[in-house]
Amino acid sequence: MVRMPNLTKREIVLEIYRKAAFPQKQIVDTVQQTLDIVQRALANGRNVELRNFGVLEVQVRKQRIGRNPNKPKAEVVIPQRAVVKFKSGKILKQQLKKIDLAKLLQT
C-alpha cells in the first residue's frame, strides 16, 4: 500500500503563507494558538465542532480485560480512559467518496 505523506503543521503554515499577505511568524503563532484552543477544549471534556469539516468528540472507553501478547495467559486490566473520536462532516464525507481507492491501495 502506498501511503501519502502526512500533512504537517509546517505544511499548513506554508500553504497559508503562500495565499495570505501575513508574515510567516504571525501565521505560525495563529495556527499554534488555534491548535492550543482545540487541545484545551478537548482536555476539558468539550467536543470541538468545525462546521463542514467534522467533530472531535471526547468519549470514555470502558475498563476492559486485555492480554499481553508476550504472555497470552496473563490477563491485564486496561483502565477506563478518555479518547478523542473524529466524525467527519457532510462536505468531508462527500470529498472522501471521490477518493480513488485503487490508487490508495497500490503497493
Q: Within the largest sheet, what's the order of strands?
A: 1-2-5
Q: Secondary-structure element order, as H and E?
A: HHEEEEEHH
Mean pLDDT across the residues is 91
- Counting DSSP H or I runs of 4 or more residues, the number of helices is 4
Shape: extended
Structural class computed from helices and strand pairing: alpha+beta
CA-atom Rg in angstroms: 19 Å
Uncertain segments are none
Please give the number of β-strands: 5
Percent of residues in helices comes to: 40-55%
- Cα distance spanning the termini: 4 Å
Hey, roughly how much beta strand do the residues contain?
A: 25-35%
Main beta sheet = 3 strands, antiparallel
Tags for this model:
107 residues, alpha+beta, 3-stranded antiparallel β-sheet, 4 helices, 30% strand
Structural commentary:
The structure is a single chain. The chain is α+β, with helices and mostly antiparallel strands and 107 residues long. It has a domain at 1-46. 40% of the residues lie in helices and 30% in strands. The strands form 2 sheets. A 3-stranded antiparallel beta sheet has the order 1-2-5. Helix 1 packs across helix 2 (24-43). It is extended, with a radius of gyration of 19 Å. The chain starts with 8 loop residues before the first helix and ends with a helix. The mean pLDDT is 91.
